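A further point concerns the way the authors explain their paired sequence and structure data. Each protein is reduced to its one-letter sequence and a matching series of backbone shape codes. An entry of this sort, consisting of the sequence and the corresponding backbone structure tokens, reads as follows:
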Amino acid sequence: MINDLIKEMVEAGVHYGHQTRKWNPGMRPYLMRDKGGIHIINLEETVRCLDKASDFISELAAKKRKILFVGCKQQAQQAVSEAAQAAGQFYVNHRWLGGTLTNLATIRKSVERLKYLEGIEKAPEYKAMSKKELAALNRERNKLLRNLQGVREMDKPPQAVVIVDTAKESIAVAEARRLKIPIVGIIDSNGDPSVIDYPIPANDDSIRSVRIILQNLVDSIVVASKG
């Protein structure tokens, strides 16, 4: 079973890290060697870390706790939204708004604004608005929807966050740590595993790599939720 997963990971390029000059020394325990100036991630460590993270996520799911998936770079956006929706969880996949965790009250106000804009045609002031005003409100609605779609039902902080590329999503990491929310992070050779509770060493620049890691986490959530 493990060998099959490692084979699948190799085919997906999960083992490819960054150029050696961009590495974080904290990742040393998870790396095998460098090949042509590229660090190679030890996939046995990846599987071990993935199992540990999956066990943690499963425990939360079994207790019906909520998890927030985060990944805003292009390679992760679709995979993050699909994974979160398949698992019935929250997600941020376009832009991390500062305070999403630490200032949730402001985020909720933005969600209420979004709801108002979505129902603007029923508002008494609608008929008095010009085409220019309505166009501006429509742009605002689309922007809010893009940023808030995955968290519009999140009225309290999640019990864990799953982050793709912890180096890029440093603000999300900082907010989760400030609130002592456990972090499961897909972390490449340039990341800092010391700030992540459940680091999963893996290539975070490959769509296939991100998908295979997220799918394993989602499977754990789905199985635990049914138990």
Q: What stands out?
A: The beta strands are 16-19, 31-35, 38-41, 67-70, 90-92, 160-164, 183-187, 198-201.
